[in-house]
Amino acid sequence: MLVGDETFAKLMADAAPAPASAPGMKVVSLRHLLALKCHAIKHGHEARIVKDADDVLQLVLVNRVDLDEPDIRDLFLKHGTAELYEKVKRLGRQG
Question: What mean pLDDT is reported for the chain?
Fold first, then answer.
């Protein structure tokens, strides 16, 4: 995903060093990755919605993201949609 300079600076500020197998590289933070995925679902190509939505659900499950946390809900509503938030919340409880 291409982002503007200001957004890229925010992503880099919170990025973590990559594993030793990729020296000098950085990995975007979980919150920023969720924001990017939500944005892609809201504004992206229809052909990617299912893949990106599954990625969001898996990130939430694997990282045990508390979807009731106000900051997480706000992230979904700012970068995604209320419908996406509610679906991930419902599916996350089943998983």
Answer: 92
